[in-house]
Amino acid sequence: MGDEGSSEKRVMTRKNKGFIDIVFQWSLEDIFNDNLYKDQVKKIPVSFQSVDQYCDSYVLPLLEETRVEMQSSMEIIDRAPYAEVTHLDVASYVPLRFNVDVDYWIKKSSTPDKKPYKTLPGDVLVIADVKPQTASDLLIPGRAWTYALVTGIKEDDNGDNSSSTSFEVTTLEDFVYKDDTKKSLYVIHLTSLVTNIRIWSALHMRITYPKTNTKIINEVLCTDQMVAEGCSLCSSEIGGDWNMIFLKSMLSQLNESQKNSVVACLDKMQCNHKSHVELIWGPPGTGKTRTVSVLLFSLLRMKYRTLACAPTNVAIADLAARVLKLVKESNKTGSVADGQFCSLGDILLFGNKERLKVDFKIEEIFLDYRVDRLSECFGLLGWRHSFTSMTNLLEDCVSQYYIFLENEKSKKKKGDGDCDCEDENQRKVCCSANDCKKGIQKSFLEYARERFARTALQLRRCVSILRTHIPKSYFQECTFQGFETLLGLLDSLENCLFSDGIASEEVEDLFLRSIDDKLLPPNLCDPSHLFCSVRNQCLSILKAIFDSLSGLKLPSSRNKDSIEKFCFRSASLFFSTASSSYKLYKAEMQPLKVVVIDEAAQLKECESVIPLQLPGLEHSVLIGDEWQLPATVKSKVSDEAGFGTSLFQRLTILGHSKHLLNIQYRMHPSISRFPNACFYNNMILDAAVVKRKSYEKHYLPWPMFSPYSFLNVSGREEADGVGHSLRNMVEVAVVQKLVQTLFNAWKRSRMRVSVGIISPYTAQVISIQEKLGRKYEKDDGFAVKVKSVDGFQGGEEDIIIISTVRSNRTGAIGFVSNSQRTNVALTRARHCLWIVGDGRTLTERQSVWQGLIRYATASSFFFNANEDKELAKAILDAKKDFGHPGDLFNQDSIILKNTRHKVPSSGNFKKSFGKMKSAQTRKGGKNHGTSSRQVLECLDKLSLEEDSGDFLEADHFWELVEALKAVDDIKEQRTIILYASTLRVYLGKFVSIINAGIKECLQKKPADGEDDSSKDAINMVKLMNRLHGQLELSKLKLESSIPVIGALCEELHLGRSSMVPFLCKQSYLEKDESYVPNESGDHLGLEENSCKGEKCSMGKKPASEYFESYTLPLLDKSREEMQSSMEIIARAQYAELTHLDVANYVPLTLPGDVLVIADVKPESSSDLPSPGRARTFALVTKIEGDNRDNSSSTSFKVTTLKDFRSKDDTKKSLYVIHLTSLITNRRLWNALHMTRNLKIINKVLYIYFV
């Protein structure tokens, strides 16, 4: 892999090397070395002293960001698109450049994007003699591999380069001669570095091109440039006629803040004495895109050559569509002669077609489409041929008709009428003869109509292409107006020629008449005179336009590159991403004057350098909102250095003035109130339209489903299969139920509604998409979109449902706490915003969510989701399905609220002990090995909960006891003193509750009926009282009592298990005084037939509760085993299936292996749910073999839940893949569900119930 010298040496010489040279010299160790640039990357300053300092500040963060991108790609190289090389040779005349042909690309990614991979310039590939499963496979001795950069895509036979199977690459070493064997070669796609390459080039452009335009860069370097933002020399010259015209036409459609922003920017753009940078601040829903569209349309009409760019393809395509719509609407109200008419040829959108998602709305201004249309128009059958054909037809139609007849006669002589020849060639001759007969019978009128229709169609198309794809300014004024006149004359001629009642001889006579109006006989009737007049005018216009076009320097149709250059030269308003604007450096055209950057707060400042240095640029307008999503930065080192900071945000920090758009038109006031107060200091006003009563929609019953609701759901977050993202299946169930309920309501009302579902985690987005499936895709009027926060930037829907995912006891919410991401999610809804989340988790730590939930609570917008019957059932089902056994011990959990076994005890006893969990069911409990930091975190958490006034949970007491015991172990004496008061409060409450429970218990039993568990409970209370007494000592005495406190905590901790049978037994005791234990001595009163599903009598604990308590953990254990097997399915044992048929009934017996039967050998579990795949689980029930020897295990019987053969009865190959063995789990399940002798179980329940 080339030079593996020190990374420091490579960094020192980076100025003398290209970007790819540096990147391709990294070894795999360098790529996975998180410290490679850590000590070299410095914090990017807010202001700069020079352009050199400015550009150099971004170089190392850019390299570090690139390293992390390469590292991320290497980590998932097993799922990267790959192809086998079919041909590889050296490209002509260029060293280390190769032509590569591959068979086809295979994409195995588990992401929801199922589009096939297409090679693009700037892609980084690995060429290797093996398809690696991990990056370490490339380091195996004897392996040959290298990096390659795609530099070009070859066209196929049809002139299309979309196949991406033939391309050109460049490397740093001669890979062909490095390993000249006949081994197979593979290309694996890693990532695209095209944007990073362009950023690098822009940062070094002043070195490569000393005359680089740095006017705008100089304006934004430091605070000094921000002081004098105006220009005194031209302040008196601004305004004028353009302002008056514009105010009358376009500004009347804007509100005051939008109008002021546009006018202020246009005034600055007229300045010729200094460069200006203007900022427009557009919070959500304030009409930012419309304001920018009007600004761009105004610059177009003022004939200012302008570039409009944005960070993403979606954003720039949307902006281009908006401007195009404005232009077309304006052209409808005006005429070609009007000075306000704008040709679409003045507008040009360029970039990658697939990424821009070019559709019919914007294809007219897309570069590739324009080049194709102009190639057609400039070709042999293009405008010259069309104009000439129509001129000849109108001038000499009669003579052409008789020539046609002569040709038909000569054809007839070659034929001999009809014949029944079987020979194909003879039959063709006969058909030709028949055609000749038809030709002779054709009248002049028929001939003229056919010729005119065919010629006019082609002529109209050429005229349409010319007037659409070439700017009006490129033609003479009379020529462009002539296009309109010509199209009108062609319509008139067509009406005359195709009118009813006209005779063929009359038309022939008219075509023989003079083309000079003065020589026409005066006795011609009006229709005839009209025809001759229109024909003469049409001929005159045709000749005039032909002469005018002939004088223009139009490119040749045979050279598409020249046509592309022509498009860049002739346009005046350009649209592209900031990265793609790099193409304009190579374009031969007049310099630009203005650059307008939309979504500027989402663009890294170093990336904005690409368009800001374009030749000739004098002014810039940045539109954005720093409170919405910033640029994405993967490297933590680069992010901390400020690599993701936008120019918009930095100028805001420097105090640059901004034009605020202060009226929002999107959100119901209940939705906009919180983000307005939290992020925009209440500067945003609600438009009148959103305050109307009609804007308030009742999609579902109020108050829970009002315009703004927080639906409190206590679920459980979990990592996805890959481990890089989180999901919460309880929230998924709630979201699914909400959508289903909305859909049912929509079916009754048929009121058009759009629903957006947002989650910050990709795994949650995928889970929701899988749950919803494609059920709502075909319903016109009910639309559902599920996207991440990033995917919804700039979007809006009638209803937005946010799934926050995070639900844990520590209050960790990760990047959900990011204010900008939260703002984007909260501001996408028009009529209703429903937030699904765990209120306790979201408010545990300081973040924007604390304020949000306080606002929701104060405004009566906070609801517990289980208060709704349907949602409660969905939550219950989800917790059962996905195994949340902890909720079985929570008195307030939805599972216990819906169970038929109720606690008959009353008062504090039932209220408190219903919440207690056993030590065996809690995960992550403290122990002697607990670290000091963990103990302090636990104590802080419990102390904060006590201070907040939350109701005491018994579980908190036990945590505090364990924590203090651990504190004593690590001799943190000051900590015990600090938290003694908290423990004392807990002890006081806890002892009173236990005493109440014991008293309630003993009241129900005779004095001699006290059992061992009751005695243990009383002893525990005495122990707690002793500890309580120790904690009430003064601080001085408390220090000397720390060993005693530690010993009491230890004893209390060891004795806690004796409390459990007492507490659990009491919770099921009959309140009736007639309760008497049964004769067998089984105090819990278990019934043998209770396991059969029969309802147990009052006062008796059903044995099924005991057995069912193991059911969910057993299912969860089985699910985890299946998941673990699925994660390594690529390495699982498998075999190709040679025979499959239906067996006679075989009972489920040994051996119990679980297999997957599929029509593909999966490399990952994500391969199985792919569209078109057929697969099912199968349980091995019997091994068959010859002579009772089944050691080969190649013939066996399985059982499935569905008929796999009927699902896919094709001749495809089938495979069986071994997952795991569930035989022990099946036996446990059967034991838990069979009729049994319960005597021993009764004893177990009595002593160890929980």
TrEMBL record:
Domain of life: Eukaryota
Segments forming a coiled coil: none
Residue span(s) of domain DUF6469: 81-206, 1148-1238
InterPro entries cross-referenced by the UniProt entry: DNA2/NAM7-like (IPR045055), DNA2/NAM7-like_C (IPR041679), DNA2/NAM7_AAA_11 (IPR041677), DUF6469 (IPR045529), P-loop_NTPase (IPR027417), SF1_C_Upf1 (IPR047187)
Residues covered by the DNA2/NAM7 helicase helicase domain: 253-398, 557-636
Domain DNA2/NAM7 helicase-like C-terminal: residue ranges: 644-838
Name by which UniProt lists this protein: Helicase MAGATAMA 3
Source organism (scientific name): Hibiscus sabdariffa (roselle)
